[in-house]
Queue: 3 jobs
Job 1
Amino acid sequence: EFTDLVVVQTQLGFEKQWYQRRVRGSLGFDGSAVQRTPDAYSSSKPCWNKTLHCKHSNIRNSNELKVKLCYSKNKKVCEVNAATVPLGNLTNMTFQTRYYALPIKGQSNQAKLKLELYYRDHAVLQSSYYHALIGELQKGDFRAVKLLRDMHWTPESRETFASVLLTVYDKTKVHLIKELISDEISRHPDNDSNSIFRDNTLTTALLVALLNSPTNAAHFEGVFSSIVEDVQARVKARQECSLDEEQLRALTQEDKARVLATLISSISQMPDDIRSVVSHLLRGLAVRWPEHPTIQSAVILTLMFVRFYLLRFVHPRERDRCTMLPETVQALLSIARSIKRKDITGYLEEFLRQRTSSASSPETANNDPTTQDVSTVEAADGAHIFNLISDVVQSTPDINLKDSDETFSNLREILDHLTLIEQKVD
């Protein structure tokens, strides 16, 4: 069985300053965002309905559900106000429980949030119903996944889909990412090598999701913690000094060199799945564009640094930020801004050196099976991936795929069949 936690939220009473804002809601457990609503322009009653599909363990192992109201300004997400609901209150929840006019803090004292939450247990839709869907996604070197990649995903739904794929294909996730990397490299125009992996694709979303996955968190948390501690110590040491602009620039260069040295030294301890995927990526680029030796550093800068390392420097985790001086936050921001492609040459060379030194031992990832036993897939995971694909199929009338494609036709039939079953259960 799995549970739907349904959240209906209504924001009321915006002041005039918010009339032209594109306001949205973000929902998550214990501070981690799970889903977000579409943007809403209405100043009086922007209203959204949003469903979170989650396992019983998600609710049982979390302390609170957090709802944030946000808007974008200069490409940055700004929080207007937020509310939390202790999940302990939901333990003995009946079919429907409502929290009316829940007050939230913010710039508008009139603003209130209305939440409606309820459980809906699906005792009928067991994981076996989703085996055909997942089996279709695995056929022909993930042919169906590649077809879905070309659909009109929003950035948020693409990232969510990537995260769910990693959960569903836990045993074959490395093989899946390698297949998509190879396919994207082979499909890319020969004369446009500089733009490879620059766009937000399902492949880049999967790689970032792998870097952020819980199984790799321990390694990277240790790396980032050591960097923050070192930068903080250097910031404290120079607080009492009077420095001119030239001296500050020199210190920023020193900070950058120390950060890069830490990242280079961490390569030897990098998790095997990431090492395998990045090695496959670099090898594919070298084979496709042998006359462009700088393409490897350009792609590593884009995928590993801009989308991951530097993003953590610019937006440190809340627990790190609580212990950081404002000057430390600014120093990390300056480091992130100063790192260019030429700066990561040492990182790339060390990665290639370690890959060469371990070439005598067979790569475990090359022996990954192309399929896995889908009987272990939980109903919540199968339902989540089904709902994500169904939403995109239904909201994309001009799908750039041929219905005559056998794989996509089979996928459509499975989705239609599961939709009928869901309707009967409801």
Job 2
Amino acid sequence: DADLMARRVSLAAYCETPEMLSGRRIDERVDIFSGGCVLYFASTGIHPFVASARPQTSLATIACKLKYPKKLFTKASVSFVAFLKAVLSKDPQSRPSAHGCVEAFSTIIKPALYSVAEMEMIIDACSALSIRPHCS
């Protein structure tokens, strides 16, 4: 039950993707979008699509008309904002792959705490542990 899951895992309701909410076919790119929501929130302290109630949040996510106000991204590089725009693309086909994210993100945070190979290992380990949504 999606509503029960959303109540139990508070972040779940705020990391749904436009394609999930529209009833379209989903694949691993939902994880890229959800990760982008978390990264946007971690960077700004504001969820990219949150509204006063869950139905409005869902509508905002489906519309996916996200803004990147300079006041929220004063310390962010142009590359970082471009990366966020890519992972939060409404069109799943336009989102980078997991490995594309690792490569892009590693150039943004250079010098990084982790090498690209180490980041790929972390992504692979996280992917192996993640629970994929059940598609009927």
Job 3
Amino acid sequence: IARSKAESDTVTCNAAMSACEKGGEWENALQLYSATIWNKVKLDVVTCSAAISACQKAGKWEAALHLFAQLARRRIESNTIAFNAALSACERAGEWAKALSLLRASKQHETSPNTITCNAAISAC
């Protein structure tokens, strides 16, 4: 299947971002996120979800929430994976008020809560 260079760059970036997430390399994930923006590679929800998840797994809840907020600022449609990663970052850090605030805002993000969403919210409290 032929892809444009822009699509290939996004797919390559997503693969690298996912590798950073899975490898626990949250700092490299943030550097890659910044480089992606700097090089004007089109970000998508996969790119952002992987960066949010990398921060969540490292206990960097503030960075995870910042990245989640970037979705709306960059007009990238959120999904349940990105939302759950941000919510789980709050849960992991014991930031129950932030978690509940995020849960209340889920309607704004047009995100449908699922079992993971509910478990993370309950665990945060």
